[in-house]
Amino acid sequence: MNFPKKFPKIETERLVLREIADEDTHAIYRNFSDPEVAKWFFEQPLTDLVQAKEFITAFKNEFREGEGLTWAIVLKQSDRCVGTCGYGDLEIGERGEIGFDLAQDQWGKGLMSEALLPIIDYGFKELGLKKIEAHSYSTNVRAIRLLEKVGFQLEKISENNHYYFITRSGENLPST
Ligand SMILES: CC(C)(COP(=O)(O)OP(=O)(O)OC[C@H]1O[C@@H](n2cnc3c(N)ncnc32)[C@H](O)[C@@H]1OP(=O)(O)O)[C@@H](O)C(=O)NCCC(=O)NCCS
Q1: CA dist 42 → 15, 32, 37, 45, 170 (Å)
Q2: What pTM was estimated for this model as a whole?
Q3: Would you place residue 166 in the very low, low, confident or very high pLDDT band (cuts 50, 70, 90)?
Q4: Residue 100: per-residue pLDDT
């Protein structure tokens, strides 16, 4: 199973999932400077566009190194980037960890479920993953509901975090 040479573009009914580009700096800054989004990732929300640029560079590097795949989530209707989703800690043919964020004004429309379902499918079929993991603060009710809705199973609860997994074969057998 090979890591893709060209960044994979995915289309759904309402979304285009494409490679993150410099033009997404403001969208990424907007999400991670919003305390309601940022609090699930960092101690402090972003305060400077430069920090968003650094994220974009990190996402590009991860892809170049074959260690991660993070898509920009773009609304087809307005061509607006509203968030990101993708894999970090990738071990092709084995496992990856999924992460995601969406602009607050877009919550509650089912957009992240629409984005996660095809990237999970991509992970199993194209990256050959056997297991996809995700974790969330135990207080992040929206993220937990989303993960369970798209098929993740709870592996453990530890130190205020819920740890989830989903396997290619659908087995209920975490390998820890
Ligand atoms: C976590 C996060 C992505 C969830 O976003 P969301 O919009 O609630 O997630 P979904 O795409 O699953 O949308 C679900 C809601 O949309 C509603 N909805 C509306 N139309 C829908 C449709 N066509 N399909 C599915 N759901 C739809 C559902 O009723 C559902 O609401 P409910 O869960 O209260 O029943 C978002 O809250 C976020 O970005 N949070 C901050 C970042 C974060 O926490 N990231 C994860 C760190 S681990």
Answers
A1: 27, 9, 9, 7, 32
A2: 0.95
A3: very high
A4: 98
